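Support request, please re-run this one:
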Amino acid sequence: MIEGDPAGTDARPQGFADGKDPEALRTIGEVAGALGIRQHVLRYWEEQFPMLRPLKRSGGRRYYRPEDVRLVETIDRLVHREGYTLRGARQALGGQRTEPAEATSSSVPEIAPQPGAGPNFAHRARLIALRTTLAGALHDS
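Re-run finished. Output below.
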């Protein structure tokens, strides 16, 4: 909530302190910086979550509306804090009831190996998931 906004009606995500109007469009760089999510992850989530469709202008430049930013925040919470897989998060956002992924000893979501992937894929995927979880924990500190 912003000082002077007693009703708590500010729609701006908490990570933005840029002085822009709450309804202003934001670039992928602004969203990534404010939420602590890398730009390539946001682009990947666009492929994985059909409901995430920021505006694209000439040259492919992305502009996120406030509802897009709220959706990104929800995806981030589901995947990085509540342990959902991307598929589970997509189903949860689609209105289907889905339970979080089974927690491992370190509460890092499991990533299923891709068909034809080498034997080291599972280890690499687990390390990437662990790194993402640790980065999120550092961001929250």
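Confidence is low (pLDDT under 50) at residues 1-13, 101-109. The radius of gyration is 17 Å.
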